[in-house]
């Protein structure tokens, strides 16, 4: 039970990190596109 809980928490953290990375990549790409068009 304890191990299962730990893995679920770990997967949650991994999901959050992946989402943050995706948002950061998309954000930097948008900034680059906007600065290029200016």
UniProtKB/TrEMBL annotation:
Q: What is the lineage of its organism?
A: Bacteria, Bacillati, Bacillota, Bacilli, Lactobacillales
Q: Which Pfam families would you find in this protein's record?
A: DUF4044 (PF13253)
Q: Which UniProt keywords apply?
A: Membrane, Transmembrane, Transmembrane helix
Transmembrane ranges?
Answer: 16-37
By what name is this protein known? Stressosome-associated protein Prli42
Question: What InterPro entries does the entry give?
Answer: DUF4044, Prli42-like
| Domain of life the protein comes from | Bacteria
């Amino acid at each position: 039970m304890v191990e299962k809980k730990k893995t679920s928490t770990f997967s949650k953290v991994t999901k959050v990190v992946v989402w943050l990375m995706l948002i950061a990549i998309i954000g930097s790409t948008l900034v680059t596109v906007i600065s290029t068009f200016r």
